[in-house]
Amino acid sequence: MRTSILNQPATNNFSRKAKITGAVLLSSFCLVGMTSCENEDDEPIVDTVSQQDKNFALSSSAFVNAQISFGELALANGEDDSILEYSRMLVDENSASKTELEGIVEGKDVELSGGITADMQAKYDELAVLSGVEFDKAFIRTQIEILDDSKSMFENEIDNGQNFTIKGYADKTLGQVKDHKAKAVVVKAEVDLENL
Predict the structure, then answer these.
(1) How far is CA 168 from CA 28, 65, 106, in A?
(2) Is the whole model's pTM more than 0.85, yes or no?
(3) Do 70 and 180 touch, CB atoms closer than 8 A?
(4) pLDDT digit string (tens) for 162-191?
(5) Of 29, 57, 66, 121, which is the most exposed, with the fewest CB atoms less than 10 Å away?
């Protein structure tokens, strides 16, 4: 009888440990199961490239190339210090955007523009024959117009693009476009005041 009394606590102790271990394992499996479930509220991460994404990459690369060209032209033909400062910023930030976009599409079936559109080339040619104050005024007006017109391209990609990285680039670059426009408005006011 004594033997069975001594073995009873050991059996109860083993049974208790087995139940605790089972509960811990069951909790672990439930936790792993819940964390691996897809949250249906989140947008799926898409790394494929749609035709919309390809069109945007081509258009935005032409836009960035044009902005770099306009900035370089302003550095050569501009006179006002605020125009020259704005132009340096334009070249630097758009060169960084170009490099970023090239990195994003590397290894993907996406074509980037090596030049600028015919419309941008026509604006460039109009500005290229000007210099000094006349150039400064025309350049900054053209910048504001170009930046206003370009917003819809970025907004369209944000709303309709499929590739999350390209959409992220569009969102970031739209912020840059808005910032450049705000700076261009200030520069235009400075140039207009200085040349009354």
Answers:
(1) 36, 19, 16
(2) no
(3) no
(4) 999 999 999 999 999 999 999 999 999 999
(5) 29
